[in-house]
C-alpha cells in the first residue's frame, strides 16, 4: 500500500492545524479508490511529527510512503529539515520506500490556483 504524508509547518493556532487535517480528509476521499492512504504530519507545534506520521503509515501497512511538503517555497524546512526527518525514518526502515515529493509551491498549476483567487 502507498501512503501519502502531507507535511505542514504546524501552528500554535489549533484551528490552522485542523484546517490541514480537514484537507487531508478530503484528499483521503479522492485517494481511497486508488488504494492510497493519506495522513497529515507537522514539522513543529502540532502532532503527529514527521517521524511519528511516517511510523503511523508503516504501522497501517504502507510499503511506500511519499512525504508531500505542504509549503509554498523551498526554505530551510523544505531544503533541510524535512529531508533530515525523513532520513531518520528511512534508516530505521530500510525495507520501506520513503520518498519526498516536490513541495506545493513548485507545482506549475499553482499559478492558475493563485489567479483563480482574484
Q: How would you sum up this structure, described in words?
A:
- The chain has 118 residues and is of the alpha/beta class.
- It has one domain (2-116): Rossmann fold (3-Layer(aba) Sandwich).
- It has four helices and four strands; from the N terminus they run E-H-E-H-E-H-E-H.
- The protein has helices at 14-31, 50-59, 76-92, 110-116, and strands at 2-8, 36-42, 64-69, 97-100.
- Strands 2-1-3-4 form a four-stranded parallel sheet, with helices on both faces.
- Strand 3 (64-69), helix 3 and strand 4 (97-100) form a beta-alpha-beta unit.
- The N and C termini lie far apart (39 Å).
- The mean pLDDT is 97.
- How many β-strand stretches? 4
- Widest sheet: strand ordering: 2-1-3-4
Question: What does the average pLDDT come to?
Answer: 97
Helix content: 40-55%
Q: How far apart are the first and last residues' alpha carbons, in Å? A: 39 Å
Number of structurally distinct domains: 1
Q: How does the helix and strand content classify structurally?
A: alpha/beta
CATH arch. level architecture: 3-Layer(aba) Sandwich
Number of discrete helical segments: 4
Q: What is the CATH T-level topology?
A: Rossmann fold
Amino acid at each position: 500500500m502507498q501512503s501519502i504524508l502531507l507535511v505542514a509547518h504546524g501552528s500554535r493556532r489549533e484551528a490552522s492545524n485542523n484546517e490541514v487535517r480537514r484537507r487531508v480528509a478530503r484528499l483521503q476521499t479522492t485517494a481511497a479508490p486508488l488504494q492510497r492512504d493519506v495522513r497529515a504530519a507537522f514539522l513543529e507545534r502540532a502532532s503527529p511529527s514527521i517521524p511519528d506520521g511516517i511510523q503511523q503509515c508503516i504501522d497501517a501497512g504502507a510499503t511506500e510512503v511519499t512525504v508531500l511538503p505542504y509549503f509554498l517555497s523551498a526554505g530551510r524546512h523544505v531544503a533541510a529539515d524535512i529531508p533530515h526527518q525523513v532520513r531518520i525514518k528511512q534508516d530505521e526502515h530500510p525495507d520501506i520506500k520513503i520518498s519526498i515529493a516536490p513541495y506545493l509551491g513548485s507545482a506549475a498549476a499553482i499559478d492558475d490556483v493563485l489567479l483563480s483567487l482574484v
